[in-house]
Specification:
Two copies of one chain form a homodimer.
Chain A lengths: L1 H15 L6 H13 L3 E2 H8 L5 H13 L3 E4 L7 E4 L13 E6 L5 E8 L10 E12 L5
Parallel strand pairs in A: 4-6
Antiparallel strand pairs in A: 1-3, 2-3, 4-5
The first copy, chain A, binds a DNA duplex through α2 and α4.
Chain lengths: ~140, ~140
DNA sequence: GATCATTTGCAACAAAGTTGCAAATATTTG
DNA sequence: CAAATATTTGCAACTTTGTTGCAAATGATC
């Protein structure tokens, strides 16, 4: 069965992150995997309905962040978007060195893994720890 | 007098944007000019005290955005930061093609005008309208 | 399967943002 | 310059978003 495989994958990921296997974590991870793109807290809430308390969703997202399972994408619309990390993300230390695309029409936010953030030369005195690049425009569907 | 000059500058800017000259607009613009870096809604509110209603600050920022007087800087902490645009910004159409720096220690957000966002090659089908680059790290003061 | 640690839901709250409407302030016009 | 008109502001009420403490429920361990 196909679902069983995804479920195995999820359980392995949670184990690896030293998290106990709970319904909310399983389901929220599944939502991320099925979505394939970045989701705001709100998106997750509307997808889980009233299966979980709002607070649980907040806490689950925080936990996933701490464990390096998801990462945030900066936006200008007062809504943090979260996306699944690739395997290289260590605990509390993200390497999401890829470009993010936000469609102005449908709002879909995608990680463009193929494209890395180009290096830049900062002025004297600045020290960079993280660089992120967000591209707005029209996505493949909305073009 | 020095203040008179700044005030003239502000009045000219508001006229140019076809906005009526009101206290809130004058004072909020002055705050931006004096700050020299990006400010969140909250920062402005704490600087104006109870001189204006909270709603007025929201509306003033929206108006400035529409008129291309300020632009937003994407952040991952659920707080939109606003910064003054350079003159090239047309109404509703921003060209803030520079790199933004957010200090992880003091939170100061600055526009690094000297450094332009490097061009990137998006995959087939995507069309970019705006690219923004945000660098996190330690600023000159906090290094 | 009992014990212990962790997670969840609930309630109550704080903060952030929005909307409609009347009063106040700007701008325009005679 | 003052009256007429247009715009902006403050207030009240509300929605949405995010947080915290604590008891009950669930998961892990032996």
């Amino acid at each position: 069965m196909k679902t069983a495989t995804v479920d195995d994958q999820i359980i392995r990921l949670l184990r690896k992150s030293q998290l106990s296997i709970t319904d909310s974590r399983r389901i929220i991870l599944e939502i991320f995997i099925q979505a394939g793109n970045a989701l705001a807290h709100h998106d997750i809430e509307s997808r889980t309905g009233d299966k979980f308390d709002r607070v649980t969703v907040y806490r689950t997202l925080h936990t996933f962040m701490e464990k390096g399972i998801i990462h945030t994408i900066p936006t200008t619309d007062n809504s943090i978007k979260y996306a699944l990390c690739k395997d290289e993300c260590a605990e509390g230390h993200h390497h999401d060195n890829h470009v993010h695309f936000i469609c102005d029409h449908c709002g879909t936010t995608t990680c463009i893994d193929e494209i890395h953030v180009p290096a830049i030369q900062l002025p004297q005195g600045y020290r960079a720890s993280q660089i992120s690049m967000v591209v707005n425009g029209a996505c493949v569907k909305c073009k």
